[in-house]
Amino acid sequence: MDYMAAAALGTALAADAAAVSVSCAVNSGSHQKIRPGIGTALTFALFQAVMPVLGWSIGKVGNGIFAAANHIIAFVILLFLGSKMLWDARSAECQMKSSDIRYGMKEVLILAVATSIDALASGIAIPVSVGAHTAFEILMTSVIIGGITLVLSLLGYLLGMKMKNINVHYALIAGGLILVVMAMKTLFAVV
After folding, report:
1. HEC per residue, the chain
2. pTM
3. C-alpha angle 28/30/35, rounded to 5°?
4. How far apart are CA 168 and CA 85, in angstroms?
5. Which helix (H) or strand (E) is 120 found in, with range?
6. How far apart are CA 109 and CA 64, in angstroms?
7. How many Cβ atoms are within 10 Å of 77's Cβ, its own excluded?
């Protein structure tokens, strides 16, 4: 298992959760309390950790179908996710000022699901992109992804507590570029 690749994947997948955490803090209404930030970060981390395992399980069911082309599938998934993150960073929605939105616990749960969809899709590619083939290695990769998400989301929340009207799309750009580089690494591992 490639721990550096797992950390890079975790960082890329956590980028949107960290960016949303900044927004959540800016709009939490209480800029001096860390407690909502801990809850937000834990929620995002939990979803980011569970979704790759679920995606990997889905991939295992279709293992015979995917076995011949797993490197190509991993390349396409990672390239798609990276491109989507880069596209989202350019979109008008992402350019919105974070103070235009209000977040409560219901919204945080919805955002946790939305920001972890890419983690679900990446679960199919984890055996190829990270070299995690056993159930233990998949769980370790998920713990790494969840841990990085927890730290980055909490840092994002702390940053958001200190700022107003910020533009948070740069994290999406960084995450998208990391996924595109991982996609290229996966493709060239075949060649």
Report:
1. CCHHHHHHHHHHHHHHHHHHHHHHHHCCCCCCCCHHHHHHHHHHHHHHHHHHHHHHHHHHHCHHHHHHHHHHHHHHHHHHHHHHHHHHHHCHHHHCCHHHCCCCHHHHHHHHHHHHHHHHHHHHHHHHHCCCCCHHHHHHHHHHHHHHHHHHHHHHHHHHHHCCCCCCCHHHHHHHHHHHHHHHHHHHHHC
2. 0.70
3. 80
4. 13
5. helix 105-129
6. 35
7. 23
The answer to whether 148 and 7 have CB atoms below 8 angstroms apart is: yes
DSSP state of 68: G
3-state secondary structure of 44: helix
Residues, the chain: 191
pLDDT digits (tens, 9 = 90+) for 95-126: 544 444 455 677 778 878 877 877 887 887 78
